[in-house]
Amino acid sequence: MATPALDSRKHDVLETIVDCYNRTAEPVSSQKIVRDYDMGLSAATLRNTMADLEELGYLTHPHTSAGRIPTEQGYRVYVDNLMTDQKLSRKEKQFIRDRYASARRDFEEIMEQTSKILSAISHHIGVVLSPELHQSILRRLELISIDSEHILAVLLMASGAVKNQVVSIPKDLPDEELYRINRILNEKLAGLPLKQIRQISQDPVKLRAVFDRPLSDPITVVTQNTFALEQEIHVYIDGTSNFFSQPEFGEVRKIESLFRVLEQKEQVADLLSARQEPLGIQVLIGSENGCEGMEMCSIVRSSYRVRGNQFGTIGVIGPTRMAYPRIVSIVKFTSQMISKLFEESL
Amino acid sequence: MATPALDSRKHDVLETIVDCYNRTAEPVSSQKIVRDYDMGLSAATLRNTMADLEELGYLTHPHTSAGRIPTEQGYRVYVDNLMTDQKLSRKEKQFIRDRYASARRDFEEIMEQTSKILSAISHHIGVVLSPELHQSILRRLELISIDSEHILAVLLMASGAVKNQVVSIPKDLPDEELYRINRILNEKLAGLPLKQIRQISQDPVKLRAVFDRPLSDPITVVTQNTFALEQEIHVYIDGTSNFFSQPEFGEVRKIESLFRVLEQKEQVADLLSARQEPLGIQVLIGSENGCEGMEMCSIVRSSYRVRGNQFGTIGVIGPTRMAYPRIVSIVKFTSQMISKLFEESL
DNA sequence: CGTTAGCATTCTTAAAATTAGAGTGCTAAA
DNA sequence: TTTAGCACTCTAATTTTAAGAATGCTAACG
Question: Are A288 and A247 in contact (CB under 8 A)?
């Protein structure tokens, strides 16, 4: 590992400072530690150690006569090596289960509820990204006539997700023909991942191979139009106003940049989506998220599994000074819950 | 009218002050008026008139040595009697049309786009309430099997709105039976307003009359479960971060209460919905909206017509100090646009 | 040699004092 | 009735002052 190993004392002191700062939001002084934590060290000794930790880049000074606060690097070490797991209490787990129990009716409701749960229990912002549809398997497809030139295609995915799509059709397609097309599409395409279906629908050769029809045939036209959909990920956000109670966001201009980002769903999706490392928890500390306007925020995210190799993401966005052990546990547990939910319910 | 009629000078002065304050967000002094507006009156005269207007309750003082700002009552008079229409420019109208042109694909997209248009052009918050479903006419119903105990009911409304609903069904209903039920439901219920269908579905007597089946029959069970849906209005909000650039919201605590309300979609829906007066523009000034935390905001709202007697609402939420004539024009024009859109597209 | 007490130093923050200026209300004259 | 002039009030910005918090360093201690 690139970071030099810390001796046991530095280890303890850094952990204590992070912990203390997370709770008070104020720079931590040597005296504060002596008073509040029983470390068996004098203030002077702590000052020496703190100076060392600052030397190493894990702490800073806002100014000379102020206590220390962790740097992003300090948080990094804390999250990677120092912090101790903090399991959720029985009560909290029960809270989460109860919330799901009251809401497991349909896919969208689960998504919404999850973001609400995350924000309610973390007191930060809860975010849920719906699973990427094109990894998802098509369970069933239904074509509903709207008018002479349009139909509504209802795509029911194995995950329970439903996608409605208005599709243009060749003019004056008789109803019986539409039924026939619908039946054939289900026969040929149900059970395949959307990704593969899309490949077929965009490739004239495969299209002919699958349906054994000329390209002008209505069935190929409908297929093309139905599956021309671009990837569309829904973003569910809740708890944004929790940020107002964070003391470090006491000025409008600090909170403004954050909210401008949150209003752009695409940006939030980029921020959360963790395609490269599909499993497990990830913690992005401060500017690591690489998003302008979010330098003061950390993100704890985890993918969840819907079925087979289909993934979505959930996460919590909070101030860099967040209670990492707790938030990590929350995100971990919730992502397990949601994965389980999808497996048993289907 | 309860308010005493203003003589022509008071009329002009009040209008000028409202106008000036709306633009500068600063208390308006007599000198300011002399300098910026050519009213042919001296500062002293203006001061006298302003004192009169304060006496009448239309203006206030923040403190002795400050200019005047309008009271809510002052705004009320301004909006009701004083302000002159300010039509949208050709450019702005074109902007709106263009935005719709690029997005008229499906119902939900129109809703989303409308809130974006409203906020983009007003520089305030744009809100759209989807039409109340139960006024809406059912065009077509499709039942899609999910598993042995659940189906997905897809309700396609005449307006183009689509409502997906997971419905419990009697166990092991064979597919052919489901098709048959589906066909019968469409025969009997398509073309009726959802409200009426709901009445039928919840009333055993009517249910028997319509389907001529015993209450234990699968078809009645499915009908009951499908139409047991409570009224659900979708709320589309955009442009919340516009509030950060308003000088009167320079302190976090003022903006906080607003955002806490906006996060509660139900509250926003209540705020906007104008069931009592279904047609035309309404302006709620400051605390008139009766919503705690929104005393500093005004709302300009208008219902739009989807088809027949089916209504939704659009609106703009901004600071009490908003450019009423302009915002009113925007909301008026947009609600006409959206009404037209729904009529021609279907 | 690591640890600690003591202390001068530095810097922040809050409170108090000062000042400049903006706008009013009133009075008296046009 | 309108307007010029002016004393008065209050705000907001700036400076001054003071208090306090935490540090780093030095020297003593075990």
Answer: no
